[in-house]
């Protein structure tokens, strides 16, 4: 814990932490030492972790990196983090993220952008760590924690993991409780870990997962010992390569990485088969209807009355307007406007309802594929390596949304997906591959992921 606290202090330029909790960390580490001495160590005893600022932490400021939650200190603890503390983990502090987890570069945070510890060979250009869990990914990659919590609504665990050479798994929808996690799009949001290795992520997920009566969408199923899946043989497994993911203009190095990953799995005894997920091309547009729709509804609660910041006005309506206009950043306001539009009378059928139907088709594509005996699907995690801060999405938000092209289908279908580091681009930056699994079969992803990493 002391070593990590010192590392955090020395790496403040990365802006990975938005709040450091050294006193609490030392107390928790001391309590862990005592339990170890008494032979009562939990599975994560004494392991120092960073927590994405989207998870409510009791008595510790939680803002979702939005000005509208300025000064909010929750009187309760999220289920996921309470399970980590139950198992002995230590809180180092709260990690930066895109405001309300909306973004793919961690540039929308009210605390400013996070810097990726990686640089292009021979260049000083500061790169994004990906988003929205950019603080988590950057902190893990730079050794500012042993592991971190993250959340994934459309790729926010897997894309930053790929950009920083770390491992990120988004479990099946319902695997982890969403209770106490600031809601973005409730039917898509899932928590998961970002860690340095597949084994570390398996160990962390076991503590994070499990049924919680406080989240009606969390599933009552035993949590397997994920770590025992690491190193398990993948011989005879059928792995799908979806032809629709071979998008126009895919960089040759991404194509080569994908082929390399397939070859590694083949060498480990898996059988590679081409599969088709015909509705893939509709996933991104449908996601950017469903996610903003749910966000506009979830964000209605920030009214200046019950939480965080308030900007007064001459009457209550003006107070709402002032609070929301000044409290929400540009990307969040854009999502609220899109969401409100697609849900409004006259447009609901044309946009929201249509997007939900597309979502069903996307889910069926995967079901058909798994019905053919496919154990998992291998794809690139991102269409490129990390890009420069300020380089994308300025004039055209859609340019940023395109980052999520390989990851959103997994959330739309509620499936588990893991991103594992698989190689480097020509400039020395990490690149990741993604494995998509059957519902609640995270174990297969850990077994396959370990072959690739
Ligand atoms: N980049 C996507 C978005 O902005 C996904 C974000 C996420 O997974 N939280 O919506």
TrEMBL record:
Domain of life, per lineage: Bacteria
Reaction(s) the record says it catalyses: L-glutamyl-tRNA(Gln) + L-glutamine + ATP + H2O = L-glutaminyl-tRNA(Gln) + L-glutamate + ADP + phosphate + H(+)
A GO CC term assigned to this protein in UniProt: glutamyl-tRNA(Gln) amidotransferase complex
Keyword field contains DNA-binding: no
Listed EC numbers: 6.3.5.7
Pfam family, one: Amidase
Keyword Protein biosynthesis: yes
Active-site residue numbers: 52 (charge relay system), 132 (charge relay system), 156 (acyl-ester intermediate)
Gene3D superfamilies according to UniProt: Amidase signature (AS) domain
HAMAP family per UniProt: GatA
Function as written in the Swiss-Prot or TrEMBL entry: Allows the formation of correctly charged Gln-tRNA(Gln) through the transamidation of misacylated Glu-tRNA(Gln) in organisms which lack glutaminyl-tRNA synthetase. The reaction takes place in the presence of glutamine and ATP through an activated gamma-phospho-Glu-tRNA(Gln). Hydrolyzes indole-3-acetamide (IAM) into indole-3-acetic acid (IAA).
Family: Belongs to the amidase family. GatA subfamily.
Name this polypeptide is given: Glutamyl-tRNA(Gln) amidotransferase subunit A
Organism, as annotated: Rhodopseudomonas rhenobacensis
Recorded name of the encoding gene: gatA
């Amino acid at each position: 814990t002391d070593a990590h606290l010192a590392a955090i202090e020395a790496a403040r330029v990365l802006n990975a932490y938005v709040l450091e909790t050294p006193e609490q960390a030392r107390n928790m580490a001391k309590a862990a030492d005592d339990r170890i001495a008494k032979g009562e160590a939990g599975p994560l005893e004494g392991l120092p972790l960073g927590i994405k600022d989207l998870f409510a932490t009791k008595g510790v400021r939680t803002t979702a990196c939005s000005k509208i939650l300025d000064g909010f200190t929750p009187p309760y603890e999220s289920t996921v983090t309470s399970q980590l503390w139950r198992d002995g983990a230590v809180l180092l502090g709260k990690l930066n993220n895109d405001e309300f987890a909306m973004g793919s570069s961690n540039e929308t945070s009210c605390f400013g952008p996070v810097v990726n510890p990686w640089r292009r060979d021979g260049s000083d250009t500061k790169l994004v760590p990906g988003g929205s869990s950019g603080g988590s990914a950057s902190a893990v990659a730079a050794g500012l924690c042993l592991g971190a919590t993250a959340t994934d609504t459309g790729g926010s665990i897997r894309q930053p993991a790929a950009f920083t050479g770390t491992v990120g798994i988004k479990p099946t929808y319902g695997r982890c409780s969403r209770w106490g996690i600031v809601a973005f799009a409730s039917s898509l949001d899932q928590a998961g870990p970002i860690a340095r290795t597949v084994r570390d992520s398996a160990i962390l997920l076991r503590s994070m997962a499990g049924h919680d009566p406080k989240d009606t969408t969390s599933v009552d199923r035993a949590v397997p010992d994920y770590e025992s899946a690491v190193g398990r043989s993948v011989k005879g497994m059928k792995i799908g390569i979806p032809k629709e993911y071979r998008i126009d203009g895919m960089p040759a190095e991404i194509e080569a990485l994908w082929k390399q990953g397939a070859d590694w799995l083949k060498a480990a005894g898996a059988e590679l088969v081409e599969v088709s997920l015909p509705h893939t091309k509709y996933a991104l547009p449908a996601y950017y209807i469903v996610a903003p729709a749910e966000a506009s509804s979830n964000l209605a609660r920030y009214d200046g009355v019950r939480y965080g910041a308030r900007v007064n006005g001459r009457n209550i309506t003006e107070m709402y307007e002032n609070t929301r206009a000044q409290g929400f950043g540009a990307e969040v306001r854009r999502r609220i406007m899109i969401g409100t539009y697609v849900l409004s009378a006259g447009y609901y059928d044309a946009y929201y309802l249509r997007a939900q139907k597309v979502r069903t088709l996307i889910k069926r594509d995967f079901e058909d594929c798994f019905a053919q005996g496919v154990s998992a699907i291998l794809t690139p995690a991102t269409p490129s390596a990390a890009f420069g801060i300020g380089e994308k999405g300025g004039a055209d938000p859609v340019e940023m949304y395109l980052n999520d092209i390989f990851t959103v289908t997994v959330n739309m279908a509620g499936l588990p997906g893991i991103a594992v580091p698989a190689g480097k681009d020509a400039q020395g930056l990490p690149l990741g591959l993604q494995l998509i699994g059957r519902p609640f079969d995270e174990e297969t992803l850990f077994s396959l992921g370990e072959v690739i990493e």
